[in-house]
Amino acid sequence: MTSNSFEKEIKPLELKKDYPLAKHTTWKVGGPAEYFVEVKTKQDLIKSIIAARKADIAVTIIGWGSNILVSDKGIKGLVIKNSYSEINILEECSYSPDKTNYARLKQVDSSQYYSFTDIDYIEETSVARKVNISSGTPLPLTINTLIRQGITGLQWFSGIPGTIGGAVYNNIHGGSHFIAEFVSRVEVLDENNNLTWIDKEQLDFAYDYSIFQTNTNYIVSVEFCFPIGDKDKALAASTEWARKKSLQPSNSAGCTYQNITETEQEKLGLESNSWGYIIDKILGLKGKQIGQAKISDKHAAFIETYPGATSEDVIKVMELIASTSKEKLGIIPHPEIFFLGFNDDELKHIK
Question: Where along the chain is the active site annotated (predicted)?
Fold first, then answer.
């Protein structure tokens, strides 16, 4: 398929060319997509991906645009904004808490860096429900919808802007909990354009990681097994966790870096393994600004942008953090965000 044939096939979905992406990201920066389409059904999601593949056009899927930095040059190929949103509550399933220890968070000052320990708990139930959720479903909508029906588990992820597909792709965490705890299997469009299901055991979940970051399968929907827990307790936890996360700055992509391991923390003799603590107390960079990007005064693991900011401003702030950390600690922080439209040379000083 040629690019002209691709454009003709996708045109009914309101295909746009050279479409600005900044407004579709939480950092509010970045250049245009070569092609852009927003999809709201399973059929249109699949159709868009297959058409692009046939025309040998690269595909990038975004949800709410959190946890990503788009290059000022933009993104080549087709960018799909996935708004395919459905929640289907199915039959009962057997629930047992999956407490695989992916987490890395030890705070020393909960007045500055929100703490989770006072609201954390284990669901004391074996009764649960299967729930199938499409990949473009907003996470906040899902949390509220399920808790209202007494289906719990997602309360730990309150305050995170994003979609179900992105949550699974990055195995998001809320305090000591990861979305992988509740995943049963994932429906994907595989490299041969077939719809198939992949069981949890094959997804290689780890801290901020799933196998989808290294293969060419696209998440279509996710089947979860959620506990039927204490509705009021879950709602209270959700509300309090969202309140704590209101400390987070606006116009950011979320936490910029993965926390260091406990081994690294012990080796360096640090009180906390959080980069918010390290950047603030050890590197002394809290509040530093380059261009219209700034290390947040609210939480130093976050980089905020202001009107007129560019992705280059954000990169320069990250370079400052990396060089200072390397000089003082001998390590470079590992970014938690995804870089879209950049080449390796542009990122060589921050990864």
Answer: 255 (proton donor), 336
The single residue listed with the structure tokens 């007494």 is 150
Closest CA to 89 of 236, 249, 226, 285: 226
Q: 229: closest CA among 133, 158, 147?
A: 147
Is 255 annotated in the active site? Answer: yes
Based on the fold, state whether residues 56 and 183 are members of the same structural domain.
Answer: no
Residue with tokens 């989808």: 212
Same domain? 78 vs 163: no
For 222, the 3-state DSSP assignment is: strand
The verdict on whether 225 is a catalytic residue reads: no
The two three-digit tokens of residue 305, written as one number? 């942008």
**End-to-end Cα, the chain, rounded Å:** 37
With respect to residue 257, please indicate whether it lies within any of the assigned structural domains: no
No. of H helices and E strands in the chain? 8, 16
Question: What are the residues whose beta carbons fall under 8 Å from the beta carbon of 88, sequence distance 6 or more?
Answer: 131, 132, 133
255, 262, 264, 319: which is the annotated catalytic residue? Answer: 255
Helix (H, G, I), strand (E, B) or coil at 196: strand
Pairing of strands 303-305, 75-82: unpaired
For 175, what's the count of Cα atoms within 13 Å in the CB-facing half-sphere?
26
Q: For the segment 92-134, what is each residue's pLDDT rounded down to a tens digit?
A: 998 877 666 555 555 444 555 556 667 777 777 778 999 999 9
Q: Contact at 8 Å (CB) between 155 and 236?
A: no
Choosing from 28, 54, 82, the residue where a domain stops is 82
Note if the pTM is more than 0.85: yes
